[in-house]
TrEMBL record:
<protein>
    <submittedName>
        <fullName>Hint domain-containing protein</fullName>
    </submittedName>
</protein>
<dbReference type="InterPro" id="IPR036844">
    <property type="entry name" value="Hint_dom_sf"/>
</dbReference>
<feature type="domain" description="Hedgehog/Intein (Hint)">
    <location>
        <begin position="146"/>
        <end position="289"/>
    </location>
</feature>
<feature type="region of interest" description="Disordered">
    <location>
        <begin position="42"/>
        <end position="68"/>
    </location>
</feature>
<dbReference type="Pfam" id="PF13403">
    <property type="entry name" value="Hint_2"/>
</dbReference>
<dbReference type="InterPro" id="IPR028992">
    <property type="entry name" value="Hedgehog/Intein_dom"/>
</dbReference>
Length: 361
């Protein structure tokens, strides 16, 4: 059976007030201590629920243990989501929150994005997750749309800001249209211990794409597209400006590799009105290219929030790509064909057979 894990907000710091129908995250919240760890195993692809009042999960094989921040066991047994709610933040953002239980013991909440200490969130919808409804493990452990590592610095008019701190309404700098507001963001944590290579983060070292591109090491998901063929980035790697998946750079540029051994990734998705090229750690990379395949991977509340933004015209969908986009295989063929023209400098890199094997397998 596959193993999974995720952290929850501890129930004593994220408190529900039934009189007002609100959740409040304590102003003294400390992410290092006010959280619990849930580790569990399962033999299928679903994260099952349980009827209200029934401390036994629907899936008898979905079992595990919850620990507090000191490593003490809180409870062991059936692991399941009891229910979920839709919250409205003060800025109007819709957030989904799941109530997690282990053998009848409430061990915490998992929101669809980080909550702000001292903030009150209004509950706009709630329902139990019963035996016949299922959530995929992908909610907690997979990432299927392009995204930034949370510590990636996104260029804004006021200087670099960590992707994890960027919120709807914040302005970010774009290559084509200058400052543009973020319309939607999603933050998720992913367990990488059982991940395939295709799901591993891609590490792009400083200067791999040209001088100062990136200015510091950059970590993105494998499918996150990077700009090539620009005079300042990836010149000589493409006949014109194109966007290619980060994983296509493995074996083509010195030092670009899958990050093995990392246990957890925190990914941030940023969507603007239009598909844009933003600056991440000094490198040109895409914002979220919103297509139906991306929308289909979201939770109902996240999808509902996006659909409202699309209906209001705040986000273009289906989005027009900021540049032509290539798949990984086509991008690698293109770079290989361009190599004789670009010489054997920083871009066209010799890779030993051993390095190539461990990069591609």
């Amino acid at each position: 059976m596959a193993n999974y894990s995720f952290h929850t907000y501890a129930p004593d710091v994220l408190v529900y007030d039934s009189a007002t129908g609100t959740f409040t995250l304590s102003s003294s919240y400390d992410f290092k201590t006010d959280r619990n760890l849930v580790e569990y195993s399962d033999d299928d692809s679903r994260f099952d629920g349980s009827d209200e009042g029934d401390p036994v999960g629907e899936d008898g094989n979905q079992v595990g243990t919850a620990y507090d921040d000191q490593g003490n066991v809180i409870e062991a047994g059936d692991v399941y989501v009891m229910g979920y709610a839709e919250l409205e933040a003060p800025d109007g953002t819709t957030i989904t929150i799941d109530r997690i239980e282990v053998d009848g013991v409430h061990v915490g909440y998992v929101p669809s994005q980080p909550l702000v200490p001292g903030t009150i969130y209004e509950v706009t919808f709630y329902e139990d997750v019963d035996d016949e409804n299922t959530l995929g493990h992908s909610y907690y452990t997979t990432n299927s749309v392009p995204c930034f590592d949370a510590i990636t610095l996104i260029e804004t008019p006021d200087g670099p800001m960590a992707a994890g701190d960027v919120l709807p309404g914040h302005l970010v700098m774009t290559l084509d249209r200058g400052p543009q507001p973020v319309q939607w963001r999603c933050d998720r944590r992913v367990d990488l211990r059982q991940a395939r290579d295709a799901d591993l983060p891609v590490f792009i070292p400083a200067d791999a794409l040209g001088a100062g591109r990136p200015a510091r090491d950059l970590i993105v998901s494998g499918q996150h597209r990077i700009l090539l063929g620009h005079v300042a980035q990836g010149a000589g790697l493409a006949p014109t400006e194109m966007l290619v998946p980060a994983k296509a750079l493995i074996g083509q540029l010195r030092g670009v590799r899958f990050m093995r051994g990392r246990r957890i990734a925190r990914w941030v998705h940023l969507a603007l009105e239009h598909h844009q090229i933003v600056t991440a750690n000094g490198a040109y990379a895409e914002s979220l290219l919103l297509r139906q395949v991306c929308v289909n991977t979201l939770l109902p509340a996240q999808r509902h929030c996006l659909e409202r933004l699309i209906a209001s015209g705040k986000i273009q969908s289906p989005a027009t790509p900021a540049r032509p986009c290539l798949g990984a295989s086509a991008a690698q063929r293109m770079m290989a064909s361009m190599r004789p023209q670009s010489g054997r400098g920083a871009f066209a890199t010799q890779v030993s057979e051993r390095e190539r094997y461990f990069s591609l397998h």
